[in-house]
Automatic annotation (TrEMBL):
Listed CDD domains: LTA_synthase
Keyword annotations: Cell membrane, Membrane, Transmembrane, Transmembrane helix
UniProt organism field: Fibrobacter succinogenes (strain ATCC 19169 / S85)
Keyword Plastid annotated: no
Record localization: Cell membrane
Organism ancestry: Bacteria, Pseudomonadati, Fibrobacterota, Fibrobacteria, Fibrobacterales
InterPro entries reported for this sequence: Alkaline_phosphatase_core_sf, OpgB/LTA_synthase_biosynth, Sulfatase_N
Transmembrane feature ranges: 12-32, 44-65, 80-107, 119-138, 176-196, 208-228
Boundaries of every Sulfatase N-terminal domain copy: 317-587
Protein known as: Sulfatase
Membrane topology: Multi-pass membrane protein
Organism superkingdom: Bacteria
Main location: membrane
């Protein structure tokens, strides 16, 4: 009896577990039976879905594992893309299946004709996917040729007959497989039909099919959203149906101005620019002369013939621009004297002999936003993804201007530029790109950069621009070679110090390896970051939804001949880098930069940034962060770089004034990016 009493809790527990398992199994069984009953009348469209998915897998393989038309890999890591592509396609195809089944059920209930409803729906569903398969081929080829997705705007741009002739020429000269596009167009629907018939014969069990769909749907969702996320990758792989949906329902309409608004906005910006720039060496063209771009300005002869510009131009200086991945201003020693020990001893040492800006902010997040705004001199688009949605626009950068002016320009990246479509932009602007999968650690990457800059670029007669993008200091901050397991287990707020120190050492190796070369004396070294990274400060720990200094405050310094060491407290942002570099090169060309030449040192400057659903401006000694969707706002004194004290309630007049200026400037930036030159 004692034994029975002693074991009774375990017996009861076991019985309860068995009962729970039985109930749960019955629930799953009932759920599957309901799906089976639901699918039964529409078995054909379920098999069409499976056939379409398999065809999309083939199309994805032909996209990811082929070269682009110019003979280079479309993506350098197709194995990192293919599983995202397969699961992403499965999700949207299943979603479309559910939508059509609901429509079919409603039609059936209204007409009381089950067979008729199923047949009608099958025909419509087959036509729907046939159209999407053809559109998908167009979309994939546009990504290979132009780096952008098929869109209504693009279709409208290239709707004339000459575009079809151009498509033929491109196909004939495709350095991957010439004319394969036409075979894809001809075979895609017959292959899908063959697969559909095959599945119809082989898979007779609707129940098994239902189980497979439910299980794989859950796996696909978890894979994309939890197991291995990738925001930039998903944008690149965006299916046509998602692009159409976004254009119809999500993306805001194209930014438009009436003639009166264009004049008013232009006058507002030009007055602000003139106040901050502090000279009259540039002039703004009328809306008619500038194709309706209020930002368009041209240099006056006084500037073009100035001795300073002539002297800089005659020097033909070289430029080495180093973009440090996630280099937070909050963790840079020269910006935080109380930070002991400093994670960035080399940057600290070179900053002591350079012009250092203490209040530099990103103009876009994440890497695509930071890198593109640095090149374009305009704040990032507030709603569109510039890297993919605006790639068809003619948007010159400081790099393309240097290329056109006789420079040899090279973009070197430790991370794959194709990852988030940056490679398409760099191919427009630079003479060449450098990326190799075997050089993703900053150590091997810098080894290559040293060799190429020292032995190739430094030995030629042409001036050069070498832009370097590091990688090791990236979330989750455990990529630095040589990190111990103990270090990798530390909190993120501590791990970032190890990875920043590692990246700092690699940049130190680069500079020390070339600083004794003769050409180095005629070289400007610019060190900055693409963006920072939020690690809980101000209550934010994600790259989206906020724009506090943990993510936007970055180091920025210029080192080189004629640059007097100084610590500059003027408010600045990545928009200012393009005009600053070009004037260092002695080049003044018509442009739509929203930034200023920082070396003129006039006034307190201003900063502007558009992030995911958030905007920010630094002006007149304050920095305002605004989140329009929730009406949230934060105001800080510009000198409060750590943003410890929020003062919006004490200065509501400042908030109102800056918010009006911010909204206008961001709208102008969006308009200019959409319109292009």
């Amino acid at each position: 009896m004692r034994i029975i009493r002693k074991k009774s809790p375990y017996i009861v527990s076991s019985l309860l577990n068995i009962a729970f398992f039985t109930i749960f199994s019955n629930m799953i069984q009932n759920f599957l039976n309901k799906i089976k009953d639901l699918l039964a009348p529409y078995k054909n469209i379920a098999y069409i879905s499976l056939a379409v998915w398999c065809t999309h897998i083939v199309l994805r393989i032909l996209l990811l594992f082929r070269n682009n038309p110019y003979g280079f890999p479309f993506v350098s890591k197709p194995d990192w893309y293919i599983f995202h592509a397969i699961t992403l396609d499965f999700l949207w195809i299943c979603n479309s299946l559910v939508v059509f089944m609901i429509i079919g059920a409603a039609f059936q209930a209204a007409t009381k004709k089950r067979v008729t409803a199923a047949k009608t729906l099958t025909i419509i569903y087959a036509v729907f996917h046939s159209i999407l398969l053809i559109a998908t081929i167009f979309d994939h080829e546009l990504m290979r040729f132009l780096g952008c997705h098929l869109s209504f705007g693009l279709a409208n741009t290239y709707k004339d007959v000459s575009s079809f002739r151009m498509f033929w020429d491109y196909s004939a000269n495709d350095n991957s497989i010439p004319f394969i596009q036409f075979f894809m167009f001809a075979l895609v629907i017959p292959i899908t039909y063959f697969l559909y018939k095959l599945y119809l014969r082989k898979f007779t069990s609707v129940k098994k099919f239902s189980i497979f769909m439910v299980i794989f749907y859950v796996i696909s969702y978890l894979f994309i959203n939890v197991i291995w996320t990738g925001h930039g990758r998903l944008k690149k792989l965006r299916p046509v149906v998602s692009t159409v949906y976004r254009e119809l329902f999500e993306i805001q309409k194209k930014t438009e101005f009436s003639d009166g608004e264009l004049l008013a906005y232009g006058k507002m910006y030009q007055e602000l620019w003139q106040r901050l720039e502090g000279d009259s060496l540039w002039e703004f063209s009328s809306a008619k002369e500038s194709n309706g771009l209020p930002l368009y300005r041209i240099p006056k002869q006084e500037l073009l013939q100035s001795e300073q510009l002539k002297q800089q131009r005659s020097l033909k200086p070289n430029f080495i621009l180093i973009l440090m991945e996630s280099e937070r201003g909050l963790n840079v020693g020269c910006l935080n004297p109380n930070l002991k020990p400093s994670p960035t001893p080399f940057i600290d040492s070179i900053a002591a002999n350079s012009r250092l800006w203490e209040r530099m902010h990103t103009s876009g997040l994440p890497t695509t936003g930071g890198v593109l705004t640095t090149h374009l001199g305009i704040s990032d688009h507030s709603t569109l993804s510039a890297a993919t949605d605006l790639v068809q626009q003619n948007l010159p950068s400081f790099a393309s201007t240097l290329t056109d002016s006789g420079y040899t320009t090279h973009y070197m990246s430790a991370a794959d530029p194709a990852w988030d479509n940056l490679g398409v932009w760099m191919s427009k602007w630079y003479t060449a790109q450098h990326y190799d999968r075997s050089r993703e650690d900053d150590s091997t990457f810098i080894d290559h950069a040293i060799s190429f800059i020292r032995d190739t670029l430094g030995s030629q007669e042409k001036p050069f621009l070498a832009t370097l993008m590091t990688r090791s200091n990236h979330y989750p901050f455990n990529f630095a070679a040589g990190m111990t397991e103990e270090q990798k287990q530390k909190p993120l707020t501590e791990r970032i110090n190890y990875t920043m120190a590692y990246a700092d050492r690699q940049v130190s190796r680069l500079i020390h390896a070339i600083e004794n070369k003769d050409w180095y004396q005629n070289t400007y070294v610019i060190i900055m970051a693409d963006h920072g990274f939020p690690l809980g400060e101000n209550g934010s720990s994600t790259m989206t939804g906020y724009a506090f200094s943990n993510a936007t405050w970055i180091p920025f310094l210029i080192h080189g001949k004629g640059i007097e060491p100084a610590r500059d407290t003027a408010t600045a942002s990545q928009m200012d880098i393009a005009p600053t570099i070009l004037e260092l090169a002695g080049i003044a060309v018509p442009n739509i930069f929203m930034g200023h030449n920082l070396l003129r040192g006039h006034g307190e400057g201003y900063s502007l940034g558009a992030y995911t659903g958030v905007k920010a401006i630094g002006l007149d000694s304050y920095r305002l962060i605004s989140k329009p969707s929730t009406e949230e706002k934060w105001l800080f004194a510009e000198g409060d770089t750590r943003q410890d004290k929020e003062v919006s309630k004490e200065h509501e007049d400042v908030v109102k004034r800056l918010r009006g200026k911010l909204d206008s400037l961001v709208k102008l930036a969006d308009y200019s990016l959409e319109k292009g030159l």
